Amino acid sequence: MTSIPAPCDAAMAATAARKATRHSGAILVATILASSLSFVDGSVVNVGLAAIGNELRASPADLQWVVNAYLLPLSALLLLGGAAGDLYGRRRMFLWGVGAFGVASILCAAAPSLGWLIVGRAVQGISAAMLLPNSLASLGAAFTGEERGKAIGTWAAAGAAAGAIGPLVGGALIDLVGWRAIFLVNLPLVLGALWLGARYLPESHGEGGSKLDWPGAILATIGLGALTWGLTILSGQAAMRGGGWAVAIGATALLLFIWAERKRGDRAMMPLGLFATRSYIGLSILTLLLYGALGGLFVLLPFLLIEAGGYSAVQAGAALLPLSIVIGLASRAMGTLAARIGPRLPLTIGPLIVAGGFLLLSRVDPNGSYWTSVMPGLLVVAIGMAGAAAPLTTAVMNSVDERHVGAANGANSALARTGGLVATALVGSVIASRGAVLVHEVAVASLVAAAMSAAAGCAALLLLEPERMEPA
Q: How far apart are CA 303 and CA 178, in angstroms?
């Protein structure tokens, strides 16, 4: 999973237009603390995979599930979590989500076996699907006008900072204490978010009163779960039987999900009316490919540096810092530029620059100098992602009818995480490799990521409708 907030997470807050409430500062801090749970946990675990595998004697497929057990429920249930907050109360879902995340973090830290660790990670994913959309909706409800824009900007910057610092702090804890300590880092964030949320967060509901889309949620979970399991099996060095059947079952469940959402119409958690425009289809392809490529990078690069380059966990975490820092610093300027010239050009050029960065990373020598081997590629990827992340939010909001803006933002955010989920499922043979073979496999994966990023840019160029992508 990436340590960078998905592009449309912040836009989900902007769609919750309510009157300003008292204690808006405390609410802002509460939402930042809660959202940081998701960003920190995703980035920290990537740095700890090697240590987890060594202590628990986990196979490459097992290590993939340490990541995907979290991403799967988060991807499948993110929209349902937002709808549950609209129906039952955002404050209630926020507090339940944060509390459950804390319990799951304790379970992960105390896990006696890999199976229990995976269960804890799955509960974390379910909890994140509850707290993330409702923390954002509560943030949008607490601010109005220009203050809402500033609050969303602060939230996004804090999320980027948490994602950047997470691997560094987590790596230090792994080296000094052990991998279990990385899950205990969540507890102060949980306690702070619970205290502020319980004391200052007002209850709010959505305007719709329809029932939750449980059939859609169940089919999406089964589809993504079976697909991920099948791809994980098929990507291993010694592929087991059943992988093809799992992929077929997953694909069938996802087709049934589309059929169920079509029958439910605008009451679906992912209304198919979103895809009535060519622009939204193009943006969905772009998001899936670009964030899939980035998700693979965040899993493979720390693993390569630790296993083949002899980096410590804290050094591997620090190696990723330039990526998050550059994206955090440059995204605001790129958002301003996209507002002036429209998002179509940045969304075409940005992914192509990312592709160039992955081409540079395909030549990484883990035993060479970090400054000449690793950092140049990371910086190019960061510049390209900064050019695409902020304009993507604007483009998604412009690509659909106004009544679908909230659903479009949520669906795009879920697609970003699904891209990381599928990418992680496909790197089994890479994680199973060692030595020179590992270096070669990561180089091949980087070339595939470059092709995915270039295809994302082409999707923006060919499918985004100029009349919908006009400057704001």
A: 16
- Residue-level pLDDT at 402: 64
| Token reading at 60 | 């490459």
Cα–Cα distance between 167 and 33 in angstroms, integer? Answer: 17
- Rounded to the nearest 10°, the torsion over CA 349, 355, 358, 362 is -140
**In terms of domains, do 155 and 224 share one?**
no
Q: Which of 159, 177, 208 is the last residue of a domain?
A: 208
**Shared-domain flag, residues 246 and 159:** no
User: What's the burial of 214, exposed, middle or buried (CB within 10 Å: 0-12/13-18/19+)?
Assistant: exposed
Residues 264, 389, single domain; the answer is no
Cβ-proximal residues to 109 (8 Å cutoff; 6+ apart), any chain: 180, 181, 183, 184
DSSP assignment, residue 434?
A: -
Cα–Cα distance for residue pair 173/185, rounded to 1 Å: 9
pLDDT in tens, 287-327: 999 999 998 888 889 889 998 898 988 888 888 888 878 87
**Percentage with pLDDT > 70 across the chain:** 87
Question: Looking at residue 19, what is its pLDDT?
Answer: 44
**Do 52 and 19 belong together in one domain?**
yes
Q: Residue 74's domain spans which residues?
A: 1-208
Q: Are residues 258 and 290 in the same domain?
A: no
CATH at residue 187: 1.20.1250.20
- CB contact at 8 A, 450 and 355: yes
Closest to 390 measured CA to CA, from 347, 436, 360: 347
How big is the CA angle at 31 (ends 342 and 69), to the nearest 5 degrees?
85
256 and 227 in a common domain: yes
Asked if 411 and 324 count as a contact pair (C-beta separation under 8 A), the reply is no
Average pLDDT over residues 371-394: 88
Residue 447 is encoded by which pair of tokens? 């070339």
What is the signed CA dihedral for 336, 340, 345, 351, rounded to 10 degrees?
Answer: 0
What is the rounded average pLDDT of the residues 114-131? 93
Give 3-state DSSP helix, strand, coil % of the chain, rounded to 5.
80, 0, 20
193: its two tokens: 């978010």
Q: How far apart are CA 450 and CA 328, in angstroms?
A: 22
CB 306 within 8 A of CB 299: no
Q: Can you give the C-alpha Rg of the chain in angstroms?
A: 21
Please state the domain count of the chain: 3
User: Which pLDDT does position 18 carry in this prediction?
Assistant: 46
> What tens digit of pLDDT does each residue of 218-233 get?
888 888 888 888 887 7
Same domain, yes or no: 264 and 302: no
Residues 342 and 415 reside in one and the same domain: yes
Last residue of a domain, one of 183, 208, 233: 208
